[in-house]
Amino acid sequence: MRGWFRRRFGASYERLLSREVADADRAPEHVAVIQDGNRRYARRQGESPTTGHREGAKTTERVLEWCQDVGVRELTLYTFSTENFDRPPEQRESLFDLICEKLYEFADADRVHDEEVCIRAIGDVARLPERVQEAVSYAESRTDGYDAFVLNIALAYGGRNELLAAARSVAREVERSELRPDDIDVSTIDSRLYGRPVRDVDLIIRTGGDERTSNFLPWHANGNEAAVYFCTPYWPAFSRTDFLRAVRTYEHRERSWRRTRARRALALLRAMGETELADARAVLGRFRDSLPSTEREAIDDLEVDSQETSLD
């Protein structure tokens, strides 16, 4: 009886979250996931680490579907970090075999082609075994012409290495007088991050209970002040409800940010003199709709007052 009630309650809660997410102003465009807990999940089940990674791969397929359902346009999966090279050889080889298998499987899947999913690898792919590099090339070439949705697979990836390589590239060009220091800007660094244009990250999800981002996409996430959602389920047990909670966390943060900006603009409008009112009103107008009704009414009152003052 208790199990039945839990299932019914869980299904109702998931529908509620779905409605909340669907009614939001906008979904995160780029979600990045740290898929933690595969081995711990396997140990809890009395299975080998390989089993945990295979179960986690099933979750990956479901998350890709959930992202498309809510309007996410880019998904990055932290699949193999530079630190993972320190794992025992038998674990690495099993993981490499699984990565190859899934890259070929995804690249040939009807749904990937029907929905025009572009598969890309980001990271120091040259460090990976030749068979993994071949699987990467196959998946990328099979989906190269698509742009409806982007699936980034982070392989041999490390955020510090990524930024260090970009800095070295810029330094070499400056040394050769091919680039002036004054011309270095954000786009200069963007174009040197593994040669892969990536949207700024809106939301990072980490499963498995740890509350850290582990050297993941520092340029694209920290620079954009991405929302972060930490949750306790291991990656193979990560559910649609967990995913919707993560998206809701992002949406609540966005609404809070807009309200803060609107209130600041309202305070600015109240303090401004007549010469600055036009600019202040323009700023405020962009955030008016996210305010409570009482504050919207206050803005309208100020608008009327300022217009009457102008007529006088």
Automatic annotation (TrEMBL):
Read off the InterPro entries from this record.
UPP_synth-like, UPP_synth-like_CS, UPP_synth-like_sf
Q: Which reaction does it catalyse?
A: geranylgeranyl diphosphate + 7 isopentenyl diphosphate = tri-trans,hepta-cis-undecaprenyl diphosphate + 7 diphosphate
Q: Which cofactor does it need?
A: Mg(2+)
Residue numbers binding substrate: 37-40, 53, 81-83, 85, 87, 206, 212-214
Q: Gene3D superfamilies from the entry?
A: Decaprenyl diphosphate synthase-like (3.40.1180.10)
What does this protein's record comment on cofactor binding?
Binds 2 magnesium ions per subunit.
What's the top EC group for this one? transferase
- Its Enzyme Commission number(s) read 2.5.1.89
Q: Where is this region: Disordered?
A: 35-58
Where do the catalytic residues lie? 36, 84 (proton acceptor)
Subunit-structure text: Homodimer.
Q: What is this protein's function?
A: Catalyzes the sequential condensation of isopentenyl diphosphate (IPP) with geranylgeranyl diphosphate (GGPP) to yield (2Z,6Z,10Z,14Z,18Z,22Z,26Z,30E,34E,38E)-undecaprenyl diphosphate (tritrans,heptacis-UPP). It is probably the precursor of glycosyl carrier lipids.
Q: Under what name is this protein listed? A: Tritrans,polycis-undecaprenyl-diphosphate synthase (geranylgeranyl-diphosphate specific)
Q: Which gene encodes it?
A: uppS
